Structure formats: structure tokens, C-alpha cells
Amino acid sequence: MNPDAGPDSAPENTSAAEPAESAADATGSRPSGLSRRGLFGLVGAGAAGLVVGGAAGAAAGAAAASASSQRDAIYPFYGARQAGITTPAQDRLHFASYDMAAGAGRDDLIELLQDWTYAAARMTQGLEVTDGGAVGGSPLAPPADTGEALGLPAAGLTITFGFGPTLFSTDDGEDRFGIAAQRPQLLTRLPRFSGDSLRPELGGGDLCIQACADDPQVAVHAIRNLSRIAFGRASIRWSQLGFGRTSSTSTSQLTPRNLFGFKDGTANVKSEDAKLVDDQVFVGSTDSPAWLAGGSYLVTRKIRMIIETWDRTRLEEQERVIGRDKGEGAPLSGGTEFTEPDFEAETGAGTPAIDTDAHVRLAHPTVNKGASLLRRGYNFVDGNDELGRLDAGLFFMSYQRSPEQFIGIQRSLAADALNEYIKHVGSAIFAIPPGAREGSYVGAPLLA
Amino acid sequence: MNPDAGPDSAPENTSAAEPAESAADATGSRPSGLSRRGLFGLVGAGAAGLVVGGAAGAAAGAAAASASSQRDAIYPFYGARQAGITTPAQDRLHFASYDMAAGAGRDDLIELLQDWTYAAARMTQGLEVTDGGAVGGSPLAPPADTGEALGLPAAGLTITFGFGPTLFSTDDGEDRFGIAAQRPQLLTRLPRFSGDSLRPELGGGDLCIQACADDPQVAVHAIRNLSRIAFGRASIRWSQLGFGRTSSTSTSQLTPRNLFGFKDGTANVKSEDAKLVDDQVFVGSTDSPAWLAGGSYLVTRKIRMIIETWDRTRLEEQERVIGRDKGEGAPLSGGTEFTEPDFEAETGAGTPAIDTDAHVRLAHPTVNKGASLLRRGYNFVDGNDELGRLDAGLFFMSYQRSPEQFIGIQRSLAADALNEYIKHVGSAIFAIPPGAREGSYVGAPLLA
């Protein structure tokens, strides 16, 4: 990794690396431990005067970085771009949106991002969070790491941080962190879309963390420990667990199925297409603002599926709505899964083979001024509602160079035949800063 | 498998089998398709006169039973005992409790269990649900299978059915299904325990289904399709997703960690100990009632962990509360993880090495008249609460020959030091009938 490489030319941190000692070295450069506030999060408001440090209990963490299997990739944390964007989509998600505490200021934000950087750099390498002292810590202090991932491999964990519009100034215009002038012009609450049924408590947020891994316990462990470290400075506003990825971000991955039973994300931006990735996913070095070069924009939409209605729809109607066949995933204009849809094709009867309001047509770059999205969504089931129906759907996430890509496509989808079967209930947008260089922290180009 | 073998001598269906044609044959014996009511569930109340069957679309399911890897076991569905009890605990859970519809009668219950048996026997073999016609069904009908598991292997899926106390008669004494006289005497709502904080909507139920798999999408697919088939006859009362097993049920499995960060279930009943399994887990042939021989009792407890408080407790206190060390899982009386705890051991100061109110002491068979449980719990995170804290904990499940085993142990735990950090919010109990023989259905000994 060359920390001086420009954001446009440097690849994202997606190559699998060994869990070697060098990983531990890499995490030790700037933040050699948590800040006093981060340590405070570990003990809470009620505790004081604890002895922190000491050698006892060091054995506790010995198993942390052991036992790797084929799916147990370890991705570098530091780099020109944050990991977790073009990284081959892992199987599981824990996503959390945070609000800064009332009264927190610029220094608190910087310190929090430094602490988060320190802890994320360790956890993504399969290492325990420490307080800067011995692994395992003192028996007289609360453990710095909550422990449920002890003995588990890194499981491909990536931790990706983002900044919401309200971080730059509140709706009242208050510039809490002295960064209002740095707000990307396009980073504003998304416009209202046709059919939106948004619940404020399921959207928005000052900050976000996306934790993806091939083991849900590893993703949950990451969000839990980062939330704990944030104690007194930021707390979770909303969160989401996802159990099955609904997109491939690499040509090496099989296309998964969403809860409508269809293959999803066949035409997704893939990391191997470097030109498309540079063009559509990452903010360029000549884009504005400069601090966001090498970063991206993330849109999240919690989309509840009305699966009972869908399940009672006949197969040919399901396929008409999507514009693909259900078994193979081929466009209804013919071919196989990866055949480009032919929107001019007609059936014998002279009607379009792919309906005018089919999802695949309205989401396609050809009807959206060439815009595409790198999708990274997950299936979710949040229990059931009072009528005994599964509360299930798609937690949609897309990364794009500009929010206008998402907005344009979402407006096209106003006519989508699929709308009868879905309801958007949560919405958020975040600016995703570039990756941190070793010795620095995520967000430094904005705040340093 | 010998369907005539007695329930005491026959092993549970836990040997991994090939996804061979014989599996498909096995599922075709009695229920060669869904009942008319089961088919009705596939189309819903609004649809009528659909053409069901036909050859088109048969290709859709072709990939279903392909692609097996090392962890992709396939367990037989039919057998003297239900699978999913001593089966090596899979990584993921989707559990659902159902209430029968108002007005449903004995014939509805029988038909539902026959439909569920038919569909479960297929899904556990990695096969699609069909309506009895061609795989994939007609384009003019809703697909019989919802499709999100197409192309996925069986992933070790087991589906385990149970009967709640209210199935045998309501609290008002109404004998809806003509089985009140068959109610196991011990199958009654659990007594109130010290510290219970139960919410009725998170417990109870006429019927339950436990779906365990190594892929959450496979477990979710099973519950979703069985719920759909139940349409008009039964609906979900409550449900629970679990993302990480917290017990081993086989000596071949590593001990996992719960969200307190401790290894859990070290002393669990393991399937390899046939004598203990027969003695403690399964109802014997001389027990009462006779129809339950080869079955078991399942207790579920949704236990919310107060993880923020726990996380601020110092390491030595955490270890004192559990009675084991956090890193290795060894009892505080010394040794390694699998060393038996020595409750007589004292520290130099003359105090017990394992505290008198340590969890490991109070849960141990030696203080519970030799009773043990086969635990099969899962970690859960159900998002976060309004204070920004993770809504997380343990979905405890235990199988035992008699509910009195659980009741006795839970009463011992009234003094458990761990109680300061947990809250029981959901509770249910179910009689688990023996396995179904090929050509029959789950529950036939009770209802046939």
C-alpha cells in the first residue's frame, strides 16, 4: 500500500492479506490506544479510579487471530479508499447510524473518529480491541473488548464510516463541529419520492458505520464495540442486521436472490471494471469538495416487501414485473443471466418482450443517462408484525460518485411495476470519506 | 432408517446423507402434494380457479439440490426422532410460534400437519416446495415455492415441530381439537420464576417450528414457506432470528461464545453420550403419554442481556459471576475448559474458588438432582432501543425429557449472580412429538 497514491489511481483495499504481525504494527502507528474519552466509554459514567493496564489476563486474547479458512479473508483497513465498497460483498451486515451527543463539539468528533479508526483497524485484522495496554487488560478493569469474537477469524470484516448531512449543520443551521462550509453541496436529505412511506426513526443520522463480514457474530461484535467506545459522544439512532447479500460486487461471485425469489444485482457495478468504478462509484480528484476525493456517497433505503401479496402473484406476472425469468434470471428478451436486456425486442404479438414498466427496464443505465450504482444491499427479517406476517424486505445500499445517480434512477422507478409490492420505510444518505492513511484517521482530510 | 425401531433405541436423524434421488422418493410416499387448503395458502383468499400444474417452468428448480460443500450436510427428515434436537447445532436459527385460526378444527390441524410434513421433508433435502405438480409449477399460478433458496444447498436444514399447551385446550378449557385428554400432564405454562419480566406477545403458542441451518436464507425460506402453507389455518404469533449458536450438541464442535463474551454450553449434553441423551432428553417408551415416546419437551426463553452494564463490569467480577475464566473457559477451580468444576475447592483465603452464587455452580447437575438439559440457544440482536442500546441477548432453547428438569434448574438460578445482567422477556413450552415415519406425518401418534 502506498499512502501517497492518488485516490483515482489507487485500488481499494480489497486484496486478502495474511493476519501477520505487520497488521498489528500497522494499527499501532497514530492511535496507539484509545483516547481518555474512549477509555471512559469502556467503564461508563458510574466507574472511576480504575487501574487500567497490567499484564494479567493477557492470555485471554491469544486465540483471536487464529483459525483461518478459505472464506476467512482479511482486508487491509488503511488505504486510499475505504474497504467495504468494492470489496466482494460479504454474506452478513450490521449497519448502525449514530447521532452525536447534545453538546459534543469538534474536538469530541475528532477524538471519536480517532478512537473508531484505532479500534476498526484492529478488529478488521482479527485482533481484539485493547485500551492501549496489554491484550486482555487488567482483571480490575472492564475488558476493553467485549469478547464474543474471541477465537473467531476476521471473517472478511470491513468497517466503513460515513458522515450524514446533519453532521455539517443541523436543520436549524447550527454548525456544531465547524464544518458547515465543508459540506458537499449534494449531501442533503434525499427528496421525497413517489410512494415514500418513510419513518423518521428509521432514517437519517450524523454518522454511520457499515460492518460487513462472513460471520454475523463478527459484524455484531464490531458495531457493539464501536458503539461502546462512542459512549457519551455518540449513540445509535437506528440499526439494521442483514442476513443475505443481494448483490455481487465482483465477477467472481454468484448472483444471490432477494426475498422476491429473484436473482438480484446481475447488472451491478463490479469491482473488476476499474473504469466504471472510477466513473460511477468514487468521487474524483477534480470533483468538489476536495476532501471527499477518493470517497463516495452512500444511500440506504429500508424497503419492506409485501411478501404475502407477492407470493400470491402468478409466476408470469412476477416475471413481467421484474423483466427477467425467475429460474435463470435471463432478461425476458432472451438469452441467459448475463445477456444484456434488449428493450426493443417484441413478442409475436407486437408487444415489448420487456414490459414498459418492468423493473429491469426502468433501473437500466440506458434510461438513466448512463447512470449506474454499486449496490450492496442485504435481505432482512425483523421478526413479524401483529398480523403474523414476516416483517421482511431489502435493506438497499448503493454507493455512487454523486447522489444524483440514485435520485435519477429512483425517479425513473416511480413507474416501476414493482412498487405495488414494496414500501420504502427508511432513508439515509452519507458522504463516505476516503480511506485513512496509516498514522492518520478516517475523516482527517475534513477535520485535520 | 428402520421406521419400526423403538424410540428408545433408534438414533436421531443426525447422520449426513447424500442429496440423492432416494430423498425425493422418500418425500413422495403419503403426502404426494399439498392439501386443497395448503394449495389455497399459496394463492390466498382473493384468487380462485387457477390452473395448477403443467410442465412449463420446470427448469426453475433444477439448481436447488446442487453445489454442496463441507458444511452442507443433508439430514433425513423421517425417523423415530425428529431431527434438530441432537443434530450438531447449526449456525443460524429462525424460530416461529403459531396460533391456530379461530374456528379451525381437528381436521384442519391434521391437514396442516400433513402439509407441513410434506413441505418440510422436501426442503430439508434441498428440494423446492411443489404443489404436487411439476417443480416450478405453471406460469399461470403463483409459484409453489417462494424461490429465495433456489440454487442454495440444504445447508444442514432441520425443521422441528412442537405442540404448545394451548393446542390441547385453551385457558378456558375449550377442547378445540379433541385432544384435551391426550395432553401430557407436565405440558402446562411454566411457573413464574423470580425476576421474570415476561411479555405475553413474546411467548406461548399452539404450535412451533424450529428451523436451523448453516445459511440463514435457508432457515428463513423454510419458515416463510411453512407460514404461507398455513394460510387461513394458523399464523405466526411470535418469531425469532438467531445468528450465532451458543451451544455445542456434539463433541466435534468447538464451544461458541455468547454475547457476554464467555464460552457457553461447555457442559452441555452431547449427542455422543447416548445414555445421557436417552436419560435426559427424550421421552421414554414407559413414560406417559405413550404418543410422546421418542419425543421431548422444548423450553424457549427470550433473555435480554443488559450488555451495557455487563460491559462496564470488571473482568474479575465477570469471571466470578460466571464461575469460569473468560479467555479459556476453565472453571475457577482450575484446569482447562473441559475440567469438571470443583465446587469444594477454596482459594488461599478460605473462600470458595467458585462463588456460591456463580452461574456454573447453580446450573450444575450436582445441585439439581442430577438434572441436565440439552441446550440449543442462539444469540440475537433485534436492532436497538430508543436509548441507542442494542436490543440483544440469548434466545435460550433447551430440550429435556421432562419440563421438571428445566423448572428445577431455573429455580436454582433464582440466586444466580448473573441475574443482575439479564431479563427474561419471553417464555414458551412445547411438547415435541416423535419423528414421522415415511408415509405418515408429524403428530400422527397423537391425532391419527
From TrEMBL, chains A, B:
Keywords: Heme, Iron, Lyase, Membrane, Metal-binding, Oxidoreductase, Peroxidase, Signal, Transmembrane, Transmembrane helix. Pfam families: Dyp_perox_C, Dyp_perox_N. Its EC number is 1.11.1.-. Residues 1-32 are annotated as: Disordered. Binds 1 heme b (iron(II)-protoporphyrin IX) group non-covalently per subunit. Residues 9-27 have a biased composition (Low complexity). It catalyses: heme b + 2 H(+) = protoporphyrin IX + Fe(2+). SUPFAM superfamilies: Dimeric alpha+beta barrel. Its cofactor is heme b. The chain crosses the membrane at residues 39-65. It is found in: Cell envelope. Residues 255-436 form the Dyp-type peroxidase C-terminal domain. Residues 82-243 form the Dyp-type peroxidase N-terminal domain. PANTHER family: DEFERROCHELATASE, DEFERROCHELATASE/PEROXIDASE. Belongs to the DyP-type peroxidase family. Involved in the recovery of exogenous heme iron. Extracts iron from heme while preserving the protoporphyrin ring intact. This is Deferrochelatase. The lineage of its organism: Bacteria, Bacillati, Actinomycetota, Actinomycetes, Micrococcales. The gene is efeB.
